[in-house]
Design brief:
Distance between the termini: 75 Å
Number of strands: 0
Radius of gyration: 22 Å
Largest sheet: none
Number of domains: 2
Amino acid sequence: MSTEEAVLRRLCAGVCLAAGLLLCALAAPRTIAYGLVGADGGEESAALADARARFTQALAVHPSDSDIALGLARLDLRAARDGEAAALDAALAHLKQAAAHAPNETFIWAELARTAMLQGAEARTVIPHLRLSSLTGRFELSSVLMRPPVALSYWDELPEDLKHDARRDLGGLWSRPQLRGRLVRLYLGLGYKERAILLDEVFPGRELRARFLNDYVLARARAH
């Protein structure tokens, strides 16, 4: 083997090793995040902090990876639910980073709208996110389930096209028997004002409303 061939082989081996290490570095945060599912109490808090730290490191290495940015945002949101004050701001920043590199991902825009709502943003901030979610993935189920609660929270300030989209999302869930349970669970999570709007907009007829409310009563009974 010539010296040139030996150098070339060592170079290829080095490149493969570096690529493997990079893939491991990017995969590790996701693996640790999955481990959160089985953790509880103090273990869960420690696992969450570790996962966020590793996702942050991975995002610094690969800042244009929208999946990592979205994954970190979802961990931030979990930390926010646990009471960390700054986590909601962090989630919003990471969602914006994800959207910048994956502008056609409807779920990111829906999550941006929901997170901005949780932060108490004004309608003028939330509306563009809702609209982009509808434009990029009108029938994508995870976004269809996420958009209506946001739209209902800003109903009085919502432009007519987004009201139409919200009615379409909600009506679509009811029109598919296998998704009616999802609609009932969505309704269960709303405040009283938002529930009233949903009933008026989607179930104006007495018979149809009675059928939906019957499903709601049954769902509440099962929950208790």
